[in-house]
UniProtKB/TrEMBL annotation:
The keyword Lyase does not apply. Signal peptide: none annotated. The keyword Hydrolase applies. Keywords: 4Fe-4S, DNA damage, DNA repair, Hydrolase, Iron, Iron-sulfur, Metal-binding. Transmembrane segments: none annotated. This is Type-4 uracil-DNA glycosylase. Residues 38-197 form the Uracil-DNA glycosylase-like domain.
Amino acid sequence: RETQRKTRDTHDTIAALREEAANCRACPLWKDATQTVFGEGPQNASIMLVGEQPGDKEDLAGKPFVGPAGEMLGRALRDAGIDRGKVYVTNAVKHFKFVPRGKIRLHQKPGTTEIRACRPWYERELAVIKPELVVALGATAAQSVLGKIMPINKNRGRLIDHDNTKVLVTVHPSYLLRLPDEDARALEYRHFVDDLTIAATFLR
Ligand code: URA
């Protein structure tokens, strides 16, 4: 078994990890979700983006950030000079957590237990991609990546050294979508793009 594990670890590819993660039972979220939503992007990406968890659209599509938050993220990446196709995009938690509310499935924030249960997948993605920078989008991603709760506003936009990886913490694109005031949203959007512009210096 040990030999098997060693072989597996050194020969991991994202495709193999995705296949393995499809049957993940490390926490109960798999029961109600449609499927595991694994990370996606080039295996030689120099930047890895980490979100919170798949939303309704992602759960159905099986791909990360394809819904409204994904649209917002794509626009901000473009404005920061980052081609989304060049970065690896994943989530801290790889199953959609929700409660049914009539016809809709209402997003529920993942808890520490689910974040911890899912972290081995992030670790194995990290081992395969070996990015020069990890960007944590929002508090859940920051908690998973850094292994502790970190206030976003105090720590955003600077490079943090963690376990031999450079980490940049910023807000989650959904936060921008939730701001009711248009001026505040525009201001926060620019701040988000500023943070991503720091990330852009890690493109290669
Ligand atoms: N929000 C996330 O954090 N990740 C997704 O994939 C979609 C929405």
